[in-house]
Amino acid sequence: MDLILNIGDQVDVGTLNHWRNLHFEYGKLITPNIPSMTTVGNHETYSGDSNLTLYKSLFHYEQLTYQGIVSLVHRPYQAEQPLAVIRFEMDAGDFRIDWDSKPTKKYDLEVSTDMVTWTALKRDWKAISTSSTLYASPTPGTPGEFYRLREK
Predict the structure, then answer these.
(1) CB within 8 A of 102, min separation 6: which ones?
(2) Of the candidates 124, 81, 77, the residue with the CA atom closest to the CA atom of residue 100
């Protein structure tokens, strides 16, 4: 295991007491050995902290960098429904990507060999239902490609 990603509702009501005695106390045996990150759920705001001031004082994601990849400065703590890819697999020689889409939203499918420079494979693809599929052909002779799907 390389990373633990705790998805939403780390605490019951988002108070400092809950962060200390629930999230950090239960994780202290694991996190010295395995990196851990959190995402925000609705419970983190139950104490009335809708701006996530306490959360932001405990988790400094606006300062993250890794191999040239940096946090999105304008929204490192973005709290909204994430784009959920539900299938990514090879299908008759092409990559098949299925996701829970939002009707009328536009999406870009991009490819990269270094996760820094991205090239559009599909641009402004408009979803017509709550479930969408796109296919992408791998580049012949390229040992490793990364794909990302972006909602606009």
Answers:
(1) 127, 130, 151
(2) 81
DSSP 49-73: -TT-HHHHHH--GGG-EETTEE--T
pLDDT in tens, the chain (152 residues): 788 888 878 888 889 999 899 888 888 888 888 888 887 888 888 888 888 888 888 887 777 776 776 665 555 555 555 677 888 888 788 889 999 898 989 999 999 888 889 999 999 999 999 899 999 888 887 778 888 899 88
12, 79, 8, 68: which is closest to 37 by C-alpha? 8
Put residue 85 in one of left, alpha, beta given phi > 0 → left and psi -120 to 50 → alpha.
Answer: beta
Q: Is the pTM of this model over 0.70?
A: no
Domains along the sequence of the chain with CATH: 4-70 (no CATH), 84-151 (2.60.40)
Q: What secondary structure does DSSP assign to 103-151, as a single string?
A: TT-EEEEEEESSSSS-EEEEEEEEP-SSEEEEEEPPPTT-S--EEEEEE
Rounded to an integer, what distance in angstroms lies between the CA atom of residue 86 and that of residue 141?
Answer: 27
CA–CA gap between residue 84 and residue 4 (Å, rounded):
18
